[in-house]
Amino acid sequence: GPAERAVAYNLRAARAAASALAFDEAAARLRTALELGAEDRPEIFLELGFASHRAGAALDAIDAFAEAAALARERGLAELLARAAIGHEEACWRPGMTDRGAVALLEEAAAALGPTDSSLRVGLLAGLARALDLQGHRNRGSVARRSAIAMARGLDDRVGLATVLMRSYWAHGATPVEEILAMLTEAMALGEELGDTEIRAEAMAWR
Questions:
Q1: Which band of pLDDT confidence, cut at 50, 70 and 90, is reported for residue 12?
Q2: 129 with 158: CB under 8 angstroms?
Q3: Pairwise CA distance, residues 25 & 13, whole Å
Q4: What does the pLDDT look like over 35-75, one tens digit per residue?
Q5: Phi and psi (nearest 5°) for 181?
Q6: Rounded to an integer, what distance in angstroms lies between the CA atom of residue 135 and that of residue 93?
């Protein structure tokens, strides 16, 4: 049949595979959809980034998020640029890559998104805090972290708050251990309240 049907079926298959935690298969189907000329390319590259990251393919994830960011930048899609920047930092952090442009992309996305408080902005600041910490910019990282925590509390964004608190381990170069333990303890409690096993487990591990 026509390419449009092939794209649609591959996207459906990719999302079914991701739901079943078959992330390698999801990434393969997303690549096929892109090769067949899928129209919603920024969103699909974003999906490909998350699937590749979950599959443990960090470099593939970084490339996909970078492509999503480039397309979002070209089309003036500020929210998609923010989501791509958040994913890019996460993919860089897992294997400990500190020189793949995460800080610059997060700062660009924050500027494009504007100063209005939002859950996306909380996510950008949380990623920026960790990226700065990993590069040794502890004071700048602490400023970004405090801003993210205050914004998340103001918005009652419990997922965003739990996420930034969970990452407070990386503040150990500029923040007293007692404060870090308190933040990780709160992140654990929020993860339990939210029923988010991943947040709870990661907070427990860092604690």
A1: very high
A2: no
A3: 9
A4: 999 889 999 999 999 999 999 999 999 999 999 999 999 99
A5: -60, -40
A6: 11
